[in-house]
Amino acid sequence: MSKKIIIIGAGIAGLSAGCHARRNGYEVEIFEKENRPGGLCTAWERNGYTFDGCIHWLVGTGPGSQFNRLWREVGALQGSEIYDHEVFLRLEGEQGRCVNIYSDLERLKNHLLELSPEDAPVIEEITGAALAFSRVKFPLEKARELYRPWDLPRLMVRMLPLFQYMGKLSRVSVAAYLKNFKDPFLREALGQLMPGGYAMTGLVSTLASLHSRDAGFPRGGSLEFARSIEQYYLALGGQIRYRAGVKRILVEGGRAAGIILEDGTREYGDIIISAADLHHTLYTLLKGKYLTPPIKQAFRLDTYTSVQVSLGVAADLAAEPHRLALRLKEPWVVGGEANRYLLINNYAFDPTLNPPGKTALAATLYSGYEEWSKLAQDQSRYREEKEKIAARVVELVEQRFPAARGRVETVDVATPLTYNRYTNVYQGAYMAWIVPPAAGQMSIAKTLPGLEGFYQIGQWVQPPAGLPGSMLTGRHVLQVICRKDKRRFREGPLPPP
Ligand SMILES: Cc1cc2nc3c(=O)[nH]c(=O)nc-3n(C[C@H](O)[C@H](O)[C@H](O)COP(=O)(O)OP(=O)(O)OC[C@H]3O[C@@H](n4cnc5c(N)ncnc54)[C@H](O)[C@@H]3O)c2cc1C
Questions:
Q1: pTM above threshold 0.70
Q2: I want to staple 301 with a disulfide (CB 3.0 to 4.6 A). Which of 137, 291, 428, 433 is the partner?
Protein backbone atom coordinates (compact mmCIF):
# COMPACT_ATOMS: atom_id res chain seq x y z
CA MET A 1 0.00 0.00 0.00
CA SER A 2 1.36 3.49 -0.82
CA LYS A 3 2.20 5.84 2.01
CA LYS A 4 -0.03 8.84 2.64
CA ILE A 5 1.59 12.29 2.70
CA ILE A 6 -0.25 15.22 4.26
CA ILE A 7 0.88 18.65 3.07
CA ILE A 8 -0.05 21.80 4.98
CA GLY A 9 -0.48 24.77 2.62
CA ALA A 10 -1.21 25.07 -1.10
CA GLY A 11 1.37 27.80 -1.79
CA ILE A 12 3.95 27.18 -4.50
CA ALA A 13 6.10 24.98 -2.21
CA GLY A 14 3.14 22.83 -1.14
CA LEU A 15 1.84 22.41 -4.69
CA SER A 16 5.31 21.54 -5.97
CA ALA A 17 5.79 18.93 -3.24
CA GLY A 18 2.33 17.57 -4.09
CA CYS A 19 3.19 17.12 -7.80
CA HIS A 20 6.50 15.40 -7.02
CA ALA A 21 4.90 13.20 -4.40
CA ARG A 22 2.19 12.03 -6.79
CA ARG A 23 4.69 11.39 -9.54
CA ASN A 24 6.63 9.24 -7.11
CA GLY A 25 3.63 7.15 -6.18
CA TYR A 26 2.54 8.60 -2.83
CA GLU A 27 -1.04 9.23 -1.85
CA VAL A 28 -1.25 12.97 -1.17
CA GLU A 29 -3.69 15.40 0.37
CA ILE A 30 -3.05 19.14 0.73
CA PHE A 31 -4.85 21.13 3.44
CA GLU A 32 -5.14 24.85 2.71
CA LYS A 33 -6.78 27.42 4.96
CA GLU A 34 -7.91 29.69 2.10
CA ASN A 35 -10.25 28.84 -0.79
CA ARG A 36 -7.67 28.95 -3.58
CA PRO A 37 -4.13 27.86 -4.40
CA GLY A 38 -1.00 30.02 -4.52
CA GLY A 39 -0.55 31.49 -1.04
CA LEU A 40 1.52 34.65 -1.52
CA CYS A 41 1.47 34.02 -5.27
CA THR A 42 -1.97 35.49 -5.76
CA ALA A 43 -4.21 38.14 -7.27
CA TRP A 44 -7.64 39.51 -6.48
CA GLU A 45 -10.55 40.88 -8.48
CA ARG A 46 -12.09 44.30 -7.90
CA ASN A 47 -14.65 45.81 -10.30
CA GLY A 48 -13.38 43.84 -13.27
CA TYR A 49 -9.69 44.60 -12.59
CA THR A 50 -7.31 41.84 -11.56
CA PHE A 51 -4.89 43.23 -9.01
CA ASP A 52 -1.78 41.09 -9.11
CA GLY A 53 -0.12 40.68 -5.74
CA CYS A 54 3.08 38.90 -6.56
CA ILE A 55 5.08 38.25 -9.73
CA HIS A 56 7.24 41.12 -10.86
CA TRP A 57 9.78 38.80 -12.41
CA LEU A 58 9.66 35.05 -12.50
CA VAL A 59 12.96 33.26 -12.94
CA GLY A 60 12.47 30.33 -15.32
CA THR A 61 10.27 31.87 -18.01
CA GLY A 62 12.90 31.38 -20.74
CA PRO A 63 12.17 28.27 -22.82
CA GLY A 64 14.91 25.71 -22.26
CA SER A 65 16.39 27.39 -19.20
CA GLN A 66 17.24 25.36 -16.13
CA PHE A 67 14.37 26.75 -14.04
CA ASN A 68 12.02 26.54 -17.00
CA ARG A 69 12.40 22.75 -17.03
CA LEU A 70 11.80 22.66 -13.27
CA TRP A 71 8.63 24.74 -13.62
CA ARG A 72 7.35 22.55 -16.44
CA GLU A 73 7.95 19.54 -14.24
CA VAL A 74 5.20 20.85 -11.94
CA GLY A 75 2.88 21.78 -14.77
CA ALA A 76 3.63 25.51 -14.92
CA LEU A 77 4.56 27.58 -17.99
CA GLN A 78 3.36 24.87 -20.38
CA GLY A 79 2.88 27.01 -23.47
CA SER A 80 2.16 30.22 -21.50
CA GLU A 81 2.74 33.51 -23.24
CA ILE A 82 5.56 35.40 -21.52
CA TYR A 83 6.03 39.15 -21.40
CA ASP A 84 9.72 40.13 -21.47
CA HIS A 85 10.26 43.85 -21.32
CA GLU A 86 13.20 45.61 -22.94
CA VAL A 87 13.31 48.05 -20.04
CA PHE A 88 12.85 46.18 -16.81
CA LEU A 89 12.59 49.33 -14.70
CA ARG A 90 12.59 53.02 -15.50
CA LEU A 91 13.64 55.47 -12.80
CA GLU A 92 12.55 59.05 -13.00
CA GLY A 93 14.48 61.49 -10.85
CA GLU A 94 14.42 65.21 -10.34
CA GLN A 95 15.01 67.72 -13.14
CA GLY A 96 13.96 65.14 -15.73
CA ARG A 97 16.85 62.72 -15.07
CA CYS A 98 15.99 59.13 -16.00
CA VAL A 99 17.71 55.78 -15.82
CA ASN A 100 16.51 52.74 -17.72
CA ILE A 101 17.44 49.35 -16.37
CA TYR A 102 17.59 47.52 -19.69
CA SER A 103 17.30 43.76 -19.66
CA ASP A 104 20.04 43.47 -22.27
CA LEU A 105 23.39 43.87 -20.52
CA GLU A 106 25.27 45.51 -23.40
CA ARG A 107 22.50 48.08 -23.74
CA LEU A 108 22.44 48.62 -19.99
CA LYS A 109 26.20 49.08 -19.87
CA ASN A 110 26.23 51.62 -22.71
CA HIS A 111 23.31 53.52 -21.22
CA LEU A 112 24.89 53.73 -17.76
CA LEU A 113 28.28 54.71 -19.25
CA GLU A 114 26.60 57.49 -21.19
CA LEU A 115 24.96 58.76 -18.02
CA SER A 116 28.10 58.59 -15.93
CA PRO A 117 31.38 57.88 -17.76
CA GLU A 118 33.35 58.33 -14.55
CA ASP A 119 31.62 55.24 -13.13
CA ALA A 120 33.02 53.03 -15.90
CA PRO A 121 34.96 50.62 -13.60
CA VAL A 122 31.95 49.79 -11.45
CA ILE A 123 29.49 49.65 -14.39
CA GLU A 124 31.82 47.28 -16.22
CA GLU A 125 32.28 45.11 -13.16
CA ILE A 126 28.52 44.75 -12.55
CA THR A 127 27.57 44.05 -16.16
CA GLY A 128 30.60 41.77 -16.67
CA ALA A 129 29.67 39.77 -13.57
CA ALA A 130 26.04 39.53 -14.69
CA LEU A 131 27.14 38.24 -18.11
CA ALA A 132 29.32 35.60 -16.45
CA PHE A 133 26.42 34.58 -14.17
CA SER A 134 24.09 34.30 -17.15
CA ARG A 135 26.37 31.63 -18.67
CA VAL A 136 26.61 29.36 -15.64
CA LYS A 137 24.24 26.53 -14.78
CA PHE A 138 23.88 26.32 -11.02
CA PRO A 139 23.44 22.88 -9.46
CA LEU A 140 19.81 23.18 -8.44
CA GLU A 141 18.19 19.89 -9.27
CA LYS A 142 19.53 17.89 -6.36
CA ALA A 143 18.72 18.38 -2.68
CA ARG A 144 21.78 19.35 -0.65
CA GLU A 145 21.00 16.52 1.75
CA LEU A 146 21.81 14.09 -1.05
CA TYR A 147 25.18 15.55 -2.05
CA ARG A 148 27.99 13.00 -2.25
CA PRO A 149 31.67 13.85 -1.64
CA TRP A 150 32.34 14.02 -5.39
CA ASP A 151 29.52 16.50 -6.00
CA LEU A 152 31.47 19.33 -4.39
CA PRO A 153 34.51 19.26 -6.69
CA ARG A 154 32.10 19.01 -9.65
CA LEU A 155 30.27 22.05 -8.38
CA MET A 156 33.53 23.98 -8.06
CA VAL A 157 34.37 23.21 -11.68
CA ARG A 158 30.96 24.45 -12.84
CA MET A 159 31.43 27.65 -10.89
CA LEU A 160 34.95 28.34 -12.19
CA PRO A 161 33.86 31.13 -14.59
CA LEU A 162 32.46 32.99 -11.59
CA PHE A 163 35.51 32.82 -9.34
CA GLN A 164 36.75 36.19 -10.52
CA TYR A 165 33.54 37.78 -9.19
CA MET A 166 32.27 35.50 -6.43
CA GLY A 167 35.06 36.24 -3.94
CA LYS A 168 34.22 39.93 -4.01
CA LEU A 169 30.51 40.16 -4.75
CA SER A 170 29.32 37.43 -2.41
CA ARG A 171 30.99 39.17 0.54
CA VAL A 172 29.61 42.65 0.06
CA SER A 173 26.07 43.94 0.54
CA VAL A 174 24.22 45.74 -2.27
CA ALA A 175 24.21 48.98 -0.26
CA ALA A 176 27.94 48.82 0.51
CA TYR A 177 28.90 47.94 -3.06
CA LEU A 178 26.78 50.65 -4.66
CA LYS A 179 28.69 53.26 -2.66
CA ASN A 180 31.38 52.78 -5.33
CA PHE A 181 29.21 54.79 -7.72
CA LYS A 182 30.25 58.41 -7.98
CA ASP A 183 26.90 59.41 -9.49
CA PRO A 184 24.35 59.35 -6.65
CA PHE A 185 21.42 58.88 -9.04
CA LEU A 186 22.92 55.73 -10.56
CA ARG A 187 23.64 54.45 -7.06
CA GLU A 188 19.99 54.97 -6.16
CA ALA A 189 18.77 53.50 -9.44
CA LEU A 190 20.50 50.16 -9.00
CA GLY A 191 19.57 50.23 -5.33
CA GLN A 192 15.89 50.07 -6.34
CA LEU A 193 16.35 46.55 -7.67
CA MET A 194 16.54 45.00 -4.22
CA PRO A 195 16.94 45.85 -0.54
CA GLY A 196 20.44 47.01 0.36
CA GLY A 197 21.10 44.25 2.90
CA TYR A 198 21.32 41.42 0.33
CA ALA A 199 24.65 40.19 -1.02
CA MET A 200 25.63 41.87 -4.28
CA THR A 201 25.51 38.45 -6.01
CA GLY A 202 21.70 38.63 -5.66
CA LEU A 203 21.52 41.81 -7.70
CA VAL A 204 23.95 40.52 -10.29
CA SER A 205 22.08 37.25 -10.76
CA THR A 206 18.81 39.16 -11.25
CA LEU A 207 20.44 41.18 -14.04
CA ALA A 208 21.78 37.89 -15.45
CA SER A 209 18.28 36.32 -15.56
CA LEU A 210 16.84 39.44 -17.22
CA HIS A 211 19.60 39.38 -19.83
CA SER A 212 18.87 35.70 -20.58
CA ARG A 213 15.19 36.56 -21.03
CA ASP A 214 14.53 34.14 -18.23
CA ALA A 215 12.78 36.51 -15.82
CA GLY A 216 9.53 37.53 -17.50
CA PHE A 217 5.87 37.79 -16.54
CA PRO A 218 3.51 34.95 -17.49
CA ARG A 219 0.28 36.09 -19.15
CA GLY A 220 -2.56 35.92 -16.66
CA GLY A 221 -0.30 36.73 -13.72
CA SER A 222 0.28 35.15 -10.34
CA LEU A 223 -3.01 33.42 -9.58
CA GLU A 224 -3.24 31.91 -13.07
CA PHE A 225 0.31 30.68 -12.63
CA ALA A 226 -0.51 29.04 -9.28
CA ARG A 227 -3.67 27.53 -10.74
CA SER A 228 -1.69 25.88 -13.52
CA ILE A 229 0.32 23.95 -10.90
CA GLU A 230 -2.82 23.15 -8.91
CA GLN A 231 -4.50 21.74 -12.05
CA TYR A 232 -1.47 19.61 -12.86
CA TYR A 233 -1.38 18.28 -9.31
CA LEU A 234 -5.08 17.39 -9.45
CA ALA A 235 -4.60 15.71 -12.82
CA LEU A 236 -1.83 13.62 -11.28
CA GLY A 237 -4.42 12.37 -8.79
CA GLY A 238 -3.63 14.64 -5.85
CA GLN A 239 -6.31 15.94 -3.52
CA ILE A 240 -6.76 19.39 -1.99
CA ARG A 241 -9.05 20.49 0.76
CA TYR A 242 -9.65 24.23 0.79
CA ARG A 243 -10.90 26.22 3.78
CA ALA A 244 -9.17 23.58 5.87
CA GLY A 245 -6.90 25.49 8.26
CA VAL A 246 -4.58 23.36 10.35
CA LYS A 247 -4.54 24.16 14.05
CA ARG A 248 -1.87 21.74 15.22
CA ILE A 249 0.43 18.96 14.10
CA LEU A 250 -0.31 15.75 15.97
CA VAL A 251 2.74 14.13 17.54
CA GLU A 252 2.54 10.58 18.87
CA GLY A 253 5.58 8.82 20.31
CA GLY A 254 8.07 11.29 18.79
CA ARG A 255 6.48 10.97 15.36
CA ALA A 256 4.31 13.40 13.40
CA ALA A 257 1.19 11.32 13.01
CA GLY A 258 -1.32 13.74 11.55
CA ILE A 259 -2.96 17.13 11.88
CA ILE A 260 -5.81 18.69 13.81
CA LEU A 261 -7.91 21.04 11.71
CA GLU A 262 -9.46 24.29 12.94
CA ASP A 263 -12.84 22.52 13.16
CA GLY A 264 -11.32 19.88 15.47
CA THR A 265 -11.24 16.97 13.02
CA ARG A 266 -8.13 14.83 12.91
CA GLU A 267 -6.42 13.56 9.78
CA TYR A 268 -3.71 10.93 9.88
CA GLY A 269 -0.82 10.36 7.49
CA ASP A 270 2.51 8.53 7.30
CA ILE A 271 4.47 11.68 6.47
CA ILE A 272 3.58 15.29 7.30
CA ILE A 273 5.10 18.11 5.25
CA SER A 274 4.48 21.66 6.38
CA ALA A 275 4.61 24.06 3.45
CA ALA A 276 3.05 26.78 5.61
CA ASP A 277 5.11 29.70 6.90
CA LEU A 278 8.08 28.42 8.96
CA HIS A 279 7.50 30.62 12.01
CA HIS A 280 3.81 29.65 12.07
CA THR A 281 4.73 25.96 11.69
CA LEU A 282 7.28 25.97 14.48
CA TYR A 283 5.68 28.31 16.99
CA THR A 284 1.97 27.62 16.44
CA LEU A 285 1.49 24.23 14.79
CA LEU A 286 4.31 22.62 16.82
CA LYS A 287 3.99 24.95 19.83
CA GLY A 288 7.67 25.95 19.89
CA LYS A 289 8.81 22.48 20.99
CA TYR A 290 11.33 21.65 18.25
CA LEU A 291 13.29 24.89 17.84
CA THR A 292 16.96 24.50 17.03
CA PRO A 293 19.76 27.08 17.59
CA PRO A 294 20.17 27.74 13.81
CA ILE A 295 16.44 28.41 13.51
CA LYS A 296 16.40 30.79 16.49
CA GLN A 297 19.45 32.52 15.05
CA ALA A 298 17.86 32.84 11.62
CA PHE A 299 14.77 34.55 13.03
CA ARG A 300 17.07 37.36 14.21
CA LEU A 301 17.86 38.29 10.60
CA ASP A 302 16.15 41.23 8.92
CA THR A 303 13.12 40.81 6.71
CA TYR A 304 11.22 43.28 4.56
CA THR A 305 7.65 43.87 3.52
CA SER A 306 5.57 46.57 1.86
CA VAL A 307 2.23 48.22 1.28
CA GLN A 308 0.60 47.73 -2.11
CA VAL A 309 -1.88 50.31 -3.35
CA SER A 310 -3.72 48.88 -6.38
CA LEU A 311 -5.61 51.25 -8.65
CA GLY A 312 -8.16 50.62 -11.38
CA VAL A 313 -7.83 53.44 -13.91
CA ALA A 314 -10.47 54.01 -16.60
CA ALA A 315 -7.82 54.86 -19.21
CA ASP A 316 -5.48 52.88 -21.40
CA LEU A 317 -1.93 53.42 -20.09
CA ALA A 318 -0.27 50.96 -22.49
CA ALA A 319 2.04 53.68 -23.82
CA GLU A 320 3.49 54.28 -20.34
CA PRO A 321 6.39 52.28 -18.80
CA HIS A 322 5.36 48.94 -17.36
CA ARG A 323 7.50 49.46 -14.24
CA LEU A 324 8.42 52.85 -12.99
CA ALA A 325 10.18 54.24 -9.93
CA LEU A 326 9.26 57.87 -9.25
CA ARG A 327 11.62 59.83 -7.04
CA LEU A 328 9.69 61.55 -4.28
CA LYS A 329 10.44 65.17 -3.35
CA GLU A 330 10.68 64.19 0.31
CA PRO A 331 11.21 60.74 1.81
CA TRP A 332 7.83 59.18 2.60
CA VAL A 333 7.78 57.23 5.83
CA VAL A 334 5.37 54.29 5.72
CA GLY A 335 5.13 51.94 8.67
CA GLY A 336 8.40 53.38 9.98
CA GLU A 337 10.27 52.83 6.69
CA ALA A 338 11.52 55.80 4.66
CA ASN A 339 10.79 55.55 0.91
CA ARG A 340 12.73 57.68 -1.58
CA TYR A 341 10.78 56.22 -4.51
CA LEU A 342 7.26 55.19 -5.35
CA LEU A 343 7.39 52.03 -7.42
CA ILE A 344 4.52 51.65 -9.90
CA ASN A 345 3.69 48.51 -11.87
CA ASN A 346 1.52 49.14 -14.89
CA TYR A 347 -0.30 46.00 -16.07
CA ALA A 348 -1.66 47.49 -19.31
CA PHE A 349 0.54 45.02 -21.23
CA ASP A 350 -1.53 42.00 -20.13
CA PRO A 351 -5.12 42.29 -21.46
CA THR A 352 -6.31 39.48 -19.17
CA LEU A 353 -5.81 41.72 -16.12
CA ASN A 354 -7.75 44.79 -17.29
CA PRO A 355 -11.22 45.56 -18.57
CA PRO A 356 -10.99 46.77 -22.22
CA GLY A 357 -9.49 50.25 -22.48
CA LYS A 358 -8.69 50.36 -18.74
CA THR A 359 -5.55 49.71 -16.69
CA ALA A 360 -4.67 48.06 -13.39
CA LEU A 361 -1.76 49.72 -11.58
CA ALA A 362 -0.02 48.62 -8.39
CA ALA A 363 2.12 51.01 -6.37
CA THR A 364 4.54 49.65 -3.79
CA LEU A 365 5.99 51.35 -0.71
CA TYR A 366 8.39 49.57 1.62
CA SER A 367 7.13 49.39 5.18
CA GLY A 368 7.85 47.92 8.59
CA TYR A 369 5.42 45.52 10.23
CA GLU A 370 5.20 46.55 13.87
CA GLU A 371 3.61 49.96 13.34
CA TRP A 372 0.78 48.40 11.37
CA SER A 373 0.35 45.81 14.04
CA LYS A 374 -0.04 48.55 16.68
CA LEU A 375 -2.35 50.58 14.46
CA ALA A 376 -4.63 47.60 13.88
CA GLN A 377 -5.51 47.53 17.55
CA ASP A 378 -7.78 50.43 16.61
CA GLN A 379 -9.48 49.46 13.36
CA SER A 380 -10.62 52.98 12.53
CA ARG A 381 -7.04 54.32 12.78
CA TYR A 382 -5.80 51.43 10.66
CA ARG A 383 -8.41 52.21 7.99
CA GLU A 384 -7.63 55.93 8.14
CA GLU A 385 -3.92 55.28 7.59
CA LYS A 386 -4.71 53.09 4.58
CA GLU A 387 -6.97 55.77 3.14
CA LYS A 388 -4.35 58.46 3.69
CA ILE A 389 -1.71 56.45 1.87
CA ALA A 390 -4.11 55.60 -0.96
CA ALA A 391 -5.07 59.27 -1.43
CA ARG A 392 -1.42 60.32 -1.69
CA VAL A 393 -0.67 57.53 -4.17
CA VAL A 394 -3.64 58.58 -6.34
CA GLU A 395 -2.36 62.16 -6.29
CA LEU A 396 1.15 61.09 -7.37
CA VAL A 397 -0.19 58.76 -10.05
CA GLU A 398 -2.46 61.48 -11.46
CA GLN A 399 0.47 63.91 -11.53
CA ARG A 400 2.64 61.46 -13.45
CA PHE A 401 -0.03 60.08 -15.81
CA PRO A 402 -2.25 62.93 -17.03
CA ALA A 403 -4.54 60.37 -18.75
CA ALA A 404 -5.41 59.00 -15.32
CA ARG A 405 -6.64 62.33 -13.92
CA GLY A 406 -10.09 61.95 -12.48
CA ARG A 407 -10.24 58.37 -13.81
CA VAL A 408 -9.13 56.33 -10.83
CA GLU A 409 -12.29 54.34 -10.22
CA THR A 410 -11.08 51.53 -7.93
CA VAL A 411 -8.63 51.60 -5.02
CA ASP A 412 -7.41 48.71 -2.90
CA VAL A 413 -4.74 48.73 -0.18
CA ALA A 414 -2.86 45.67 1.08
CA THR A 415 -0.64 46.20 4.13
CA PRO A 416 1.94 43.88 5.72
CA LEU A 417 -0.91 42.71 7.97
CA THR A 418 -2.88 41.67 4.88
CA TYR A 419 -0.08 39.31 3.84
CA ASN A 420 0.06 37.90 7.36
CA ARG A 421 -3.70 37.47 7.66
CA TYR A 422 -3.98 35.84 4.27
CA THR A 423 -1.08 33.37 4.49
CA ASN A 424 0.19 33.50 8.12
CA VAL A 425 3.51 34.75 6.74
CA TYR A 426 5.77 35.97 9.55
CA GLN A 427 5.76 39.78 9.76
CA GLY A 428 4.38 40.00 6.24
CA ALA A 429 7.89 39.05 5.03
CA TYR A 430 7.03 37.72 1.61
CA MET A 431 10.63 37.11 0.55
CA ALA A 432 11.72 35.43 3.82
CA TRP A 433 14.97 36.73 5.34
CA ILE A 434 17.32 39.24 3.84
CA VAL A 435 20.33 36.94 3.87
CA PRO A 436 23.32 39.22 4.48
CA PRO A 437 26.67 38.47 2.81
CA ALA A 438 28.14 37.38 6.16
CA ALA A 439 25.62 34.52 6.41
CA GLY A 440 26.93 32.93 3.18
CA GLN A 441 24.81 30.20 1.59
CA MET A 442 22.01 29.75 4.07
CA SER A 443 19.59 26.87 4.40
CA ILE A 444 17.38 25.56 7.18
CA ALA A 445 17.15 21.81 7.76
CA LYS A 446 13.93 20.28 6.44
CA THR A 447 13.74 17.92 9.39
CA LEU A 448 13.59 18.60 13.12
CA PRO A 449 15.52 16.66 15.78
CA GLY A 450 13.22 14.47 17.85
CA LEU A 451 10.38 14.54 15.34
CA GLU A 452 10.17 11.61 12.94
CA GLY A 453 8.04 11.67 9.80
CA PHE A 454 7.99 15.47 9.59
CA TYR A 455 9.44 17.84 6.96
CA GLN A 456 9.29 21.61 6.55
CA ILE A 457 9.62 23.37 3.21
CA GLY A 458 8.90 26.74 1.60
CA GLN A 459 10.57 30.08 1.13
CA TRP A 460 12.22 30.20 4.57
CA VAL A 461 14.01 26.91 4.17
CA GLN A 462 16.17 27.97 1.25
CA PRO A 463 16.53 31.75 1.14
CA PRO A 464 16.92 33.94 -0.84
CA ALA A 465 13.73 32.41 -2.00
CA GLY A 466 10.91 33.80 -4.06
CA LEU A 467 8.88 31.49 -6.24
CA PRO A 468 11.71 29.41 -7.76
CA GLY A 469 13.26 28.71 -4.35
CA SER A 470 9.91 27.68 -2.87
CA MET A 471 9.20 25.38 -5.80
CA LEU A 472 12.65 23.79 -5.44
CA THR A 473 12.10 22.93 -1.77
CA GLY A 474 9.05 20.90 -2.86
CA ARG A 475 11.20 18.91 -5.30
CA HIS A 476 14.07 18.46 -2.86
CA VAL A 477 11.93 17.21 0.00
CA LEU A 478 10.55 14.43 -2.19
CA GLN A 479 14.08 13.44 -3.18
CA VAL A 480 14.92 13.13 0.52
CA ILE A 481 11.74 11.16 1.26
CA CYS A 482 12.28 8.85 -1.72
CA ARG A 483 15.85 8.19 -0.60
CA LYS A 484 14.61 7.33 2.89
CA ASP A 485 11.98 5.00 1.42
CA LYS A 486 14.60 3.46 -0.89
CA ARG A 487 12.77 4.56 -4.04
CA ARG A 488 14.39 6.00 -7.12
CA PHE A 489 13.21 9.63 -7.46
CA ARG A 490 11.21 9.97 -10.67
CA GLU A 491 11.76 13.22 -12.50
CA GLY A 492 9.38 14.99 -14.83
CA PRO A 493 8.13 16.32 -17.02
CA LEU A 494 6.05 13.37 -18.02
CA PRO A 495 3.71 13.83 -21.00
CA PRO A 496 0.80 16.05 -19.89
CA PRO A 497 -1.66 13.87 -17.95
C1 LIG B 1 4.15 41.71 -3.25
C2 LIG B 1 4.95 40.47 -3.55
C3 LIG B 1 5.81 40.46 -4.62
C4 LIG B 1 6.57 39.32 -4.89
N5 LIG B 1 7.32 39.31 -6.02
C6 LIG B 1 7.95 38.16 -6.38
C7 LIG B 1 8.60 38.07 -7.64
O8 LIG B 1 8.55 39.00 -8.46
N9 LIG B 1 9.26 36.92 -7.95
C10 LIG B 1 9.31 35.87 -7.08
O11 LIG B 1 9.93 34.85 -7.41
N12 LIG B 1 8.70 35.94 -5.88
C13 LIG B 1 8.01 37.04 -5.51
N14 LIG B 1 7.35 37.11 -4.31
C15 LIG B 1 7.62 36.08 -3.29
C16 LIG B 1 6.85 34.79 -3.47
O17 LIG B 1 5.48 35.07 -3.63
C18 LIG B 1 7.04 33.92 -2.23
O19 LIG B 1 8.41 33.78 -1.94
C20 LIG B 1 6.47 32.52 -2.46
O21 LIG B 1 5.18 32.59 -3.02
C22 LIG B 1 6.41 31.75 -1.14
O23 LIG B 1 5.79 30.51 -1.37
P24 LIG B 1 5.62 29.44 -0.21
O25 LIG B 1 4.89 28.29 -0.79
O26 LIG B 1 6.94 29.18 0.42
O27 LIG B 1 4.75 30.15 0.93
P28 LIG B 1 3.27 30.75 0.94
O29 LIG B 1 2.94 31.37 -0.34
O30 LIG B 1 3.22 31.58 2.18
O31 LIG B 1 2.34 29.48 1.11
C32 LIG B 1 1.96 28.96 2.34
C33 LIG B 1 0.54 28.45 2.22
O34 LIG B 1 0.17 27.83 3.46
C35 LIG B 1 -1.13 28.24 3.83
N36 LIG B 1 -1.24 28.12 5.28
C37 LIG B 1 -0.58 28.85 6.22
N38 LIG B 1 -0.92 28.43 7.45
C39 LIG B 1 -1.80 27.42 7.28
C40 LIG B 1 -2.52 26.58 8.18
N41 LIG B 1 -2.38 26.70 9.51
N42 LIG B 1 -3.36 25.66 7.67
C43 LIG B 1 -3.51 25.51 6.32
N44 LIG B 1 -2.87 26.29 5.44
C45 LIG B 1 -2.02 27.21 5.91
C46 LIG B 1 -1.21 29.66 3.34
O47 LIG B 1 -2.55 30.10 3.22
C48 LIG B 1 -0.48 29.56 2.00
O49 LIG B 1 -1.36 29.17 0.97
C50 LIG B 1 6.53 38.20 -4.03
C51 LIG B 1 5.62 38.20 -2.98
C52 LIG B 1 4.82 39.29 -2.76
C53 LIG B 1 3.78 39.25 -1.68
A1: yes
A2: 433
Give the pairing of strands 454-456 and 271-274.
parallel
From the centroid of its chain, how far is CA 478? 21
* Protein residue with its CA nearest to atom 15 in ligand 1: 466
Rounded to the nearest angstrom, the distance between the alpha carbon of 120 and the centre of ligand 1 is 39
Distance between CA 334 and CA 170 in Å, rounded? 30
- For ligand 1, atom 13: residue with the closest CA: 466
Q: What is the pLDDT of residues 247-289, one digit of tens each?
A: 999 999 999 999 999 999 999 999 999 999 999 999 999 999 9
Where is 296: in which H helix or E strand?
A: helix 293-298
Residues 6+ apart with CB under 8 A from 289: none
Among protein residues, the one whose CA lies closest to atom 41 of ligand 1 = 246
Rounded distance between C-alpha atoms, residue 405 and residue 480, angstroms: 56
Helix (H) or strand (E) holding 29: strand 27-31
Q: What is the distance in A from the centroid of ligand 1 to the CA of 28?
A: 20
Q: Whose CA is nearest to atom 27 of ligand 1?
A: 11
Name all domains of the chain by residue range, CATH numbers in brackets. Answer: 4-41+64-78+220-301+433-484 (3.50.50.60), 96-212 (no CATH), 305-428 (no CATH)
Ligand 1 binding pocket includes 16 (Cβ within 6 Å): no
For residue 443, is pLDDT > 50? Answer: yes
Is-contact 307 389, C-beta < 8 A?
Answer: yes
- Kindly report, residue by residue over 142-185, the tens digit of the pLDDT: 999 999 888 888 888 888 888 888 888 999 999 999 999 999 99
Closest by Cα among 22, 34, 28 to 7: 28
From the CA of 38, how far away is ligand 1's center (Å)? 7
Decide: 343 and 192 in contact? Cβ < 8 Å. Answer: yes
Question: Residue 188: CB within 6 Å of ligand 1?
Answer: no
Determine whether the shortest distance from the Cβ of 430 to ligand 1 is under 6 A.
yes
**Ligand 1 atom at minimal distance to the Cα of residue 55:** 8
- Residues 6 or more apart whose Cβ sits within 8 Å of residue 234: 240
